[in-house]
Design goal:
69 residues, mainly alpha, 3 helices, Guanine nucleotide-binding protein subunit gamma, G-protein_gamma, cell membrane
């Protein structure tokens, strides 16, 4: 797609993207990192990857065994 556009069009697209990005509020990573850590710790009890899935709710458990005789 970018190959079909002229250099002027590419620069115009880049300027438009930069105009969108300059409107974003920036927050230091020291603040957001702590917020993410706190959120992860608060949600850890609901995370099936950390606590596991109960057998009765596990859609991937074996339905039965298969025996070849």
């Amino acid at each position: 797609m970018a190959q079909d556009l002229s250099e002027k069009e590419l620069l115009k697209m880049e300027v438009e993207q930069l105009k969108k990005e300059v409107k974003n509020t920036r927050v230091p990573i020291s603040k957001t990192g702590k917020e993410i850590k706190d959120y992860m710790e608060a949600q850890a009890g609901n995370d099936p990857l950390l606590k596991g899935v109960p057998e009765d709710k596990n859609p991937f458990k074996e339905k039965g065994s298969c025996a070849i005789s």
